[in-house]
Amino acid sequence: MRSIPTAARGNDATLGATVIRPRGDALTRDNPDQLRDVQRVALSILNSMSKLISRPIVKPVLMRRVLCAMPAALVLGLVPSASVAQLQVQITGVGSQQFPISIASFARDGQAPPAEIDSIIRADLARSGLFRIVDAGTQPLAENASVNFGEWKGRGADALVVGSVARLADGRFDVRYRLHDTVKQTQLDGLSYVSTAADLRLTAHRIADRIYEKITGERGVFATRIAYVVQTSPKSWELHIADADGFNSQAALRSREPIISPAWAPDGTRLAYVSFESGKPVVYVHSVTTGERRAVANFRGSNSAPAWSPDGRSLAVTLTREGNSQVFLMNADGSNVRRLTTSSGIDTEPAFSTDGGSIYFTSDRGGGPQIYRMPVSGGAAQRVTFNGDYNISARVSPDGKQLAYIGRRGGRLQVYVLDLASGQEVAVTDTTSDESPSFAPNGRLLLYATEVKGRGILASASTDGRVRTRLSGPSGDIRESTWGPFIK
Amino acid sequence: MRLNHLSRGALLTASVVFALVGCSSVNLDEQPAAPIVDSSATTDTKTGPDPRAVASVDAQAGRTLDPLNDPNNPLSKRSIFFDFDSFVVKSEYQPIVQTHGSYLGTNKQRRVTIEGHTDERGGREYNLALGQKRAEAVKQRLLLLGVVDSQVETVSFGEEKPRGTGSSEDAWAQNRRADLNYR
Questions:
Q1: CA distances from residue A219 to A441, B122, B137, B143 in whole angstroms, order as listed
Q2: Which residue of A has its CA nearest to B181?
Q3: Which of A273, A374, A442, B161 could lock B157 by a disulfide, CB 3.0 to 4.6 Å apart?
Q4: In degrees to the nearest 10, what's the CA dihedral of B91, B95, B99, B104?
Q5: Interface list for B 142-171 with A (CB within 8 A)
Q6: pLDDT-derived band of residue B90, with 50, 70 and 90 as boundaries?
Q7: In this complex, is the C-beta atom of A231 within 8 Å of any C-beta atom belonging to chain B?
Q8: Domain ranges within chain A, ordered by starting residue
Q9: Is A363 helix (H, G, I), strand (E, B) or coil?
Q10: HEC profile for chain B?
Q11: Are A445 and A461 in contact (CB under 8 A)?
Q12: Is A325's CB within 8 Å of B157's CB?
């Protein structure tokens, strides 16, 4: 039996996670200088990736390490490990600077676990666009194996992940991992998790989140969830909830009528959406774990486009009870309905600003649809988008500084990101039928739906558009994707 | 089935007669002469209905065809089609609006839902709003014709319920429409 000193850590305690102390080194968290050095490198990568939108995170520093530039035409295809291949990771864009990391195969005792922890971690980090995965070969490296740092550095990996998966007597799995800095030859992190077979993928995502945070200094989003709608036949719609990589997809609602516009409550336990099950669009709030649901906006006419306030207490919705589509505010239980926008045309697709003080929305008051912003307390609306004659479906970045939306230019519907301070706009995708963009809760990635060969698929992209990943979910026509919040 | 007292008696009598008739194959010559029963005294044919009468009912008789279901009635045309990105009711559809306006105006008890639809191009929520605008445009025309606001509800399905499938201009043209759906 391996003897690894354990110390419970607050935010991982629920998963049964335990910090693995480095062999011979001080605990990573107690060594801020070393962390800062690694983070400085990673943050300069983040910084360079944000260049297009002029958003410096840290002042550029003279880097000790030379970062490897990506080969110009790198296409990284990771074959799904599970027999039910729900996901394909295809990086079609190219990041110029990425952190080189190697993830060795996890050692395992006997029977293979139902999820390939190391493959999941590789796919997560690659999808983020911030990492370049350096081939680690097929030789497993156990969590407690001694590491030849020079060899891994020589291969071009500035960090190395090793780990082990062991089946426990009760059927659960003991998953242990260590993150090594091959340049400083120190351990950056070490954790052990006790996980059920069903939670192994989640455990892998949590490890990927740890690595992401240790290297970049920002929170990872791999253990978060997404929601989307899939039409499985001409008369069948399903609202799905899945892991951020598209796996573990589960239907939260099945209907013989359309479902659109799912929106996560900020606490990640409820979804608001529009269902046509009663023969017209009605807004429901649905508790994900219990399946309990109720209509919160079912007024005369159409009820649609629910958006949660950041505090989760209010919903903005589009109602037509006074004529054309207008934005209304209501309490999350459907009470206290009051009209927010007043135009003679279309005002719809409300989205709260990060501080909750403003609402962004789509309006055709100037002719074609454009994004406008107005105070939640009422008042004049200001136009926000000026390029092109069709801009819709705005979402605000978690830091409140960017807007993602769909723009139609020359007949192509694409995801755009606008830097609100500078007014600079970047096309994030190269597809032509994009819809429903949403930010990852750390603001670094966008999830959106697009079409390939007439079928709706899921895709994610870095907010600068340099790295795009195509996800494919269950069979069917996928649309209406939305990225959920951090789970507390 | 419920029988009144009188007809139950009549039936009883009739069955007695029937039973006797059933015995008629007996050779009367070999039997002592049987008394002839006069049944007319117990059969009240003056006040009761003929128990053997059959009333013929025509399921369609006395009912006129609902004009909404008559394919030859102009009211059977219940779709109004629109140009791309437009919610203007074109003049060629004005007769349809006029027909339904007159019908709803004279049949105040009738309720109609106008369902707006769009083609697949563009965002789903924006298309929902555009479909609503189409339904609302038709409603405003009806109100001008004297239809009461409470008779009409406007809803939208956006691009979610296409009539024409595929991504051809033909399919799109079928899907940019408002349907009048009577309740």
A1: 9, 34, 49, 57
A2: A279
A3: B161
A4: 10
A5: 153-158, 160-161, 167
A6: very high
A7: no
A8: 10-64+98-216, 225-483
A9: strand
A10: CCCCHHHHHHHHHHHHHHHHHHCCCCCHHHCCCCCCCCCCCCCCCCCCCCCCCCCCCCCCCCCCCCHHHCCCCHHHCCEEECCCCCCCCCHHHHHHHHHHHHHHHHCCCCCEEEEEECCCCCCHHHHHHHHHHHHHHHHHHHHHCCCCHHHEEEEEEECCCCCCCCCCHHHHHHHCEEEEEEC
A11: yes
A12: no
ipTM above 0.85, yes or no: no
Q: How far is residue B101's CA from residue A346's CA, in Å, rounded to a whole number?
A: 26
Nearest CA in chain B to A280: B155
Q: How far apart are the first and last CA of chain A?
A: 33
Q: Is A318 on the interface with B (CB under 8 A)?
A: yes
Nearest to A301 among B130, B155, B157 (CB): B155
Distance of CA B121 to the CA centre of its chain: 37
User: How far is it, in rounded angstroms, from Cα A481 to Cα A249?
Assistant: 13
**What is the interface size between A and B, counted as CB pairs within 8 Å?**
88
> For every one of its 488 residues, what pLDDT tens digit does chain A have, with 9 covering 90 and above?
333 333 333 334 334 566 665 544 332 333 334 444 445 445 445 544 443 333 333 222 222 232 333 332 233 333 333 323 333 444 544 445 789 999 999 999 877 788 799 999 999 999 998 999 999 999 999 999 999 999 999 999 999 999 999 999 999 999 999 999 999 999 999 999 999 999 999 999 999 999 999 999 999 999 999 999 999 999 999 999 999 999 999 999 999 999 999 999 999 999 999 999 999 999 999 999 999 999 999 999 999 999 999 999 999 999 999 999 999 999 999 999 999 999 999 999 999 999 999 999 999 999 999 999 999 999 999 999 999 999 999 999 999 999 999 999 999 999 999 999 999 999 999 999 999 999 999 999 999 999 988 899 999 999 988 888 888 688 889 999 999 999 87
Whole-angstrom CA distances from A166 to A23, A104, A176, A197 are: 20, 16, 9, 11
d(C-alpha A157, C-alpha A183), whole Å: 9
CATH of domain A10-64+98-216: 3.40.50.10070
Residue A404 near residue A392, CB atoms below 8 Å: no
**DSSP classification of residue A132:** E
Residue with tokens 């002592």: B32
Helix H or strand E segment including A49:
helix A32-49
CA–CA distance, A355 with B62 (Å, rounded to integer): 68
* Cβ contact A362–B161 (<8 Å): no
Could you tell me which residues come within 8 angstroms of residue A170 by beta carbon, excluding any fewer than 6 positions away?
Answer: none
Give the residue carrying structure tokens 């039936």. Answer: B11
Q: Please say whether the beta carbons of A267 and A485 come within 8 A.
A: yes
A contact test, residue of B132, B181, B183 with most A CBs within 10 A: B132
In the numeric block, the tokens 């990568």 are attached to A45
Structural class in CATH, domain A225-483: mainly beta
Predicted TM-score of the model (pTM): 0.80
Chain B partners of A404 at a C-beta cutoff of 8 Å?
none
Is the CB of B125 inside 8 Å of chain A's CB atoms? yes
